């Protein structure tokens, strides 16, 4: 439930979940000199109006490119106050997003804007920046490249970094490049991500409006944020029937759970993650798995032809199998991936490892997925 604070600012509560990594932003543009934006507080009247777009397609921001970061968020629930600019349509907050907007005409050219707080990811700017690059099919960048790509920005007195991120080419199925304006700001132990995603030129035209909106943002103190309870997607794990021989493993920063099976060079990994909403969608996540196997991105039609349905208790999932070369190990690898959409959140299951080992664990893996009770 959103509450309205003094002066018409909206107070956004946030429901916590332990989530797996879906997707983030993309490539940083280069600058010859660093400019510092000191974002001034906007007046209580609406922030500078966003110029209404003219023309364009109804596609707007590519759904597959507007993914969300994921992390383990425990403790009190962070919230922000802000002023909604003219021309922005506020959307319901979700399990991952503290705030969400459509910038522009929802039925024509527009962009998606989300605000995502992640506890425990402060000081991880380079890692997150490279995750964004991976999502857009770009090579990993160095700390020096990231520094050149960043513009200092200040939000509610907290220093952060602003990135302008653009795909090298239009994504599969899109006629235009995708651009993201993204700001990263650490507040206490929470890393805040402000992300606008959409067609390259349109998002570029909204940069000033985005900065003006950042000037209206105020971080609600932890003590106040914790005083408001908000329901949402459950943060607990499903109940599973874990196959014999599977061993739990540390899930790492972005996974909800992890198991390993087998030994030595025939060991497989079972990674489980959770995302708000569609988690970037099936096409984007399959292409992420493809890149991990050294495969080029596939179009939506090709991926749909390779996808089979999985009948689950109370829902239906999507399954795909991929073969390639593990880019980390340089060895042949196979992936069996399943996506389970549940309305307000989506679960992703991935079995990966040497081809013969994956083949041996395939039925146990699918049985494990089917056994889940959410």
What does this molecule look like?
The chain is an alpha+beta fold. The chain has 2 domains: 3-225, Mog1/PsbP, alpha/beta/alpha sandwich (Protein Transport Mog1p, Chain A, 3-Layer(aba) Sandwich), CATH 3.40.1000.10; 247-371, Mog1/PsbP, alpha/beta/alpha sandwich (Protein Transport Mog1p, Chain A). It contains 8 helices and 19 strands. The chain has helices at 125-135, 143-149, 200-205, 207-214, 222-225, 282-292, 300-306, 355-371, and strands at 3-4, 10-11, 37-38, 80-81, 88-91, 99-104, 110-119, 151-155, 158-166, 178-187, 190-199, 218-219, 247-248, 257-261, 268-276, 308-312, 315-326, 331-341, 345-353. It has an 8-stranded mixed sheet with strand order 3-8-9-10-11-7-6-5. Strand 1 (3-4) and strand 2 (10-11) form a beta hairpin. The longest helix has 17 residues, at 355-371. It is globular and about 55 Å long. Residues 1-76 and 224-235 have low confidence and may be disordered.
């Amino acid at each position: 439930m959103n509450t309205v604070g003094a002066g018409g600012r909206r107070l956004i509560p946030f429901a916590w979940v332990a989530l797996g990594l879906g997707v983030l932003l993309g490539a940083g543009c280069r600058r010859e000199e660093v400019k510092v934006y000191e974002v001034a507080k906007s007046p209580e009247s609406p922030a500078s109006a966003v110029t209404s777009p003219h023309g364009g397609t109804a596609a707007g921001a590519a759904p597959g490119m507007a993914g969300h970061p994921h992390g383990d968020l425990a403790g009190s629930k962070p919230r922000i106050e802000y002023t909604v600019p003219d021309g922005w349509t506020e959307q319901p907050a979700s399990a991952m997003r503290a705030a969400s907007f459509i910038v522009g005409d929802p039925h024509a050219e527009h962009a998606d804007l989300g605000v995502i707080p992640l506890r425990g990811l402060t000081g991880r700017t380079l890692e997150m920046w490279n995750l964004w690059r991976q999502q857009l099919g770009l090579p990993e960048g160095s700390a020096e490249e990231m520094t050149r790509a960043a513009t200092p920005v200040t939000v509610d007195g907290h220093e952060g970094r602003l990135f302008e991120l653009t795909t090298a080419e239009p994504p599969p199925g899109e006629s235009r490049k995708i651009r993201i304006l993204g700001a990263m700001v650490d507040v206490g132990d929470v890393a805040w991500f402000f992300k606008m995603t959409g067609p390259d030129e349109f998002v570029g035209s909204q940069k000033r409006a985005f900065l003006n909106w950042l000037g209206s943002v105020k971080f609600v103190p932890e003590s106040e944020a914790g005083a408001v309870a908000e329901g949402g997607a459950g943060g607990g794990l499903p109940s599973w029937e874990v196959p014999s021989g599977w061993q739990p493993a540390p899930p790492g920063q972005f996974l909800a759970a992890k198991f390993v099976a087998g030994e030595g060079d025939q060991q497989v990994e079972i990674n489980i993650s959770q995302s708000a909403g569609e988690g970037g969608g099936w096409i984007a996540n399959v292409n992420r798995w493809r890149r991990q196997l050294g495969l080029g991105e596939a179009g939506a039609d090709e991926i749909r032809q390779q996808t089979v349905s999985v009948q689950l208790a109370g829902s239906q999932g999507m399954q795909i199998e991929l073969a390639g070369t593990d880019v980390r190990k340089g060895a042949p690898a196979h992936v069996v991936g399943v996506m389970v959409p549940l309305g307000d959140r989506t679960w992703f299951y991935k079995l990966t490892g040497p081809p013969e080992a994956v083949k041996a664990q395939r039925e146990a893996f699918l049985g494990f997925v089917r056994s889940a009770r959410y």
